[in-house]
Write a structure and sequence with these properties.
single chain, 244 residues, alpha/beta, 2 domains, 3-stranded parallel beta sheet, two-stranded parallel sheet
Length: 244
Amino acid sequence: MGTDPVVRTILHQTSYMACSATNSLTDGVDIIGINVYNWCHVADTFVTSGYQSILQQFINSNMNTPFIFSEYGCNTQDFASPYPWTSNYRTWVQVPCLFSPSQMASYFSGGVAYTLVMAAGQKNAADSASSFGLVATTAGGNTAPGQPPFYELPSYSNLQSQYLTVSMTQPGKPLIGAPTRAPSVCPTLTDADMLTWFEAYKLSNGSAKTGPDPTTGQPYWNSTYAQAATYLQLGTTPPSQILV
């Protein structure tokens, strides 16, 4: 994730999850996580990695829900590390940027390094460099003879060292980078918005009607939030006309 169209799509979808039509914090989700695998070069910076662009787009969204990187850490390009995972391993130099109040933590609330335990069988995989794991396990078939059953790889030590450089104390903030909590204003929901949403989640085959209901004279999904929000938030069954 990181290209502008992808970020715009995520922001469009999450804007409905983070808003309230009644100005109530209980209407929206508590926190939103996005997976970001940028920072794939040793020489990357806040700007060249794409982090700055991601940050600015989220700031411009004016959403007040805390955001985190639910997965971060690149394992391609400069950090494509094949078995035994002792060369080209991840240095995690993006960690200070992610937790810096003047950079990502000005709006984001930290993140989760991906991932702790290596997937089983990566040692003998055709592309052993595709693993994100920081710890190789004997049970997963990824350790060498003589290594402990839970073997911490160099990438694990690097991540640990980077975390030790971060100050986690920011008085007055419930989460690092969390903006002032207040529900966002819900965007107008149109028939086109709802059809896009339904088709994305395989709830419509693309031929659903968008015109007025011949019985009521009203759109199948009105643009004043009510019917659409009821389905989105409560999971109630949509009108049968939308599921043609």
